[in-house]
Amino acid sequence: MVNDMNDRHDDDMDDDTGFDADPGDDFDTGLLEEELRQAAAVLDPLPPALLQIAVDAYALHDLDARVAELTFDSLVDAIPVRGATDVPRMLTFNAGEVTLDVEVTAEGLMGQVLPPQSARIEVLGGPQSATTPLTADDMGRFTADTPPSGPFALRLHTGGDVVVTEWMRA
User: Fold this and answer.
1) Within this chain, do residues 48 and 104 fall inside the same structural domain, yes or no?
2) Basic and acidic residues composition bias: which ranges (predicted)?
């Protein structure tokens, strides 16, 4: 009896994959995709904080801003010093003729805009990192008493220019 059932089952299968060879031409992948989206929304919804971060990141997008390229990162480019612990992270960003040198330590952030000029610097991060903008003096120097936590970027406003750095991990 079991052999009869196996024989009938084998007759229904057209190949050795275990699936019917003709699944049907009327299968709608768009409908399946929509049903999967709805199931994911119910079973594993997007956290509101993550959605807010995504919206904020898009809102921070500035079409006129120039993106400053990371040209030096001490974690990658520097030669380690034996016995040195808790060394600051040095970052250099370039955008045209504007250079931004930044030092990130456990105590905070400090840097300089080159060529020296006054500027307003925003430290961009997640929703918990709402900080007041930093002000660079006439020599282009600025400091922050709080180090960035998690991913961060800097937005520099100089005169009519806006420069945004790449996103980095603290």
Assistant:
1) no
2) 1-11
Q: Please tell me the distance from the alpha carbon of residue 46 to that of residue 49, in angstroms, as a whole number.
A: 9
Task: List the CATH number of the domain containing 83.
Answer: 2.60.40
CB 141, CB 115: distance < 8 Å: no
Of 75, 165, 74, which Cα lies nearest the Cα of 122?
165
- Taking every pair of Cα atoms in the chain, the longest distance, rounded to a whole number of angstroms, is 93
Contact 20, 13 (CB under 8 A): yes
Predicted confidence band of residue 47 (pLDDT cuts 50, 70, 90): confident
Distance, in Å, from the CA atom of 52 to the CA atom of 33, rounded to the nearest integer, reads 25
Are 35 and 104 within one domain?
no
69, 52: one domain = no
Q: Is residue 112 part of a domain?
A: yes
Q: What's the pLDDT tens digit per position in 85-108?
A: 778 899 999 998 899 999 999 899
Q: Is this model's pTM higher than 0.70 or not?
A: no
